[in-house]
Amino acid sequence: MTATTSSPAGADDRLARRNVLVLALAQALAGGNSTVMLATGAITGSMLAPSRGLATLPITAFVMGQWIGTLPVGALARRYGRRTAFQASASCGVVAGFVAFVAVMLNSFALFIVATFIGGMYAAGQAAYRFAAADTASEAFRPKAISLVMAGGVLAALFGPQLVIFTKDMLPPYLFAASYLAQAVIGVFAVLLLGLVNIPKPAPVSATADSGRPLSEFIRMPRFIVAVACGVISFSVMNLVMTSAPLAMLDCNHSVTDATLGIQWHVLGMFAPSFFTGALCARFGAGRVVAAGLTLTAASAVVAIAGITLAHFWISLILLGVGWNFGYIGATTMVTACHRPEERIRVQAFNDFLVFGSLAISSLSSGLLMATVGWSGINEAVFPVVMVAVGMLAWLTLRERRRTV
């Protein structure tokens, strides 16, 4: 079953294209906020934390906020509509920037953890933009709608790291203090922009003849299981390596600017392919696109292990970003093919809850792994995890082929 009713593309997609434009711009602003946190979180953490092993704890708090925020964002969307839910989460971005600024000024690691957690609540709303793009889209336009909203991250990749580079030393000796203030201002613009989202509110459950299947049925659905697993693995592996990369670059005598630009190239890799990933899903199938993404993720680990020059780091991060894009958008498209219209918000929130829960584990592990096995060890761990996802995709493909024979 699909996520939307099968109505003419032209009729549905006028509204869908308008929403895609608004959500793509909102994705750019939200991505800019996330980029500030991701590019600076581990570095600021290393300066404020009582021990180096806790340096990536702020990133873990960010992911925890994103994980825990998925269910409240889904609940708000079901009760009040997508627009209200997205504006509420964007307001968390404003608060997060101000709290992070105060934390740096007071040299408080605990307060900085609070700030990154609140920032993750903003990211929880951002994660649902891709699903919201599909709400008013026809079946034919749905993969492209998801992909184009994700493409808004290209702008985030361009201005997010540059914002950090431009503002990081504006309030000496407090590194990144001005960056977090700028992050709060971006959040204000995002709240205003999201007021333009136009997605009909879901009908009250009491007025709906069929409220949909229970989540327990989806947990037993092979296609949904594989889609979620591929999303979990694509995102958690990317997060593990990306979180560790800035610290690894500093350890290899590269500068803060080099590390920030590395994240910029990575984020470009994450979102630039979105202009055509949806078309690839429509032409070749989402499963094949996911498989290509997993292959690129493994290739990024090969490059990372091969050397520690700036080129090795940047090429590895670019491949990691493109691999995430194919894996994540492909898995998202697979999820949208598993549920009915009345089930979409509940199932999508459940999917994101599982995906971002895995990120919390990978983020928490990254600092400890950097302190024990190092950069090479982290990348070596990529291969067996990717093979699990590839094996699941192969199993699903064979299973569906047998059913059609």
Number of helices: 17
**Averaging pLDDT over every residue, what do you get?**
87
Q: What is the CATH homologous superfamily assignment?
A: MFS general substrate transporter like domains
The percent range for strand residues is under 5%
Low-confidence stretches: 1-11
Query: Can you write the helix and strand succession as a string?
Result: HHHHHHHHHHHHHHHHH
Major sheet: none
- Coarse morphology: globular
Radius of gyration over C-alpha positions, nearest whole angstrom: 20 Å
Please tell me the total number of domains.
1
Q: Judging by the overall fold, what is the CATH architecture? A: Up-down Bundle
Classify the helix fraction into a percent range: over 70%
Reading off the top of the CATH hierarchy, the class is best stated as Mainly Alpha
What does it look like?
By secondary structure, the protein is mainly α. Helix content is 81%, strand content 0%. The chain has a single domain, classed as Growth Hormone, Chain: A (Up-down Bundle). It has helices at residues 9-48, 57-80, 82-106, 109-127, 129-135, 142-151, 153-167, 177-194, 215-219, 222-251, 256-271, 274-284, 286-306, 310-336, 344-372, 374-380, 382-404. The two termini are 20 Å apart.
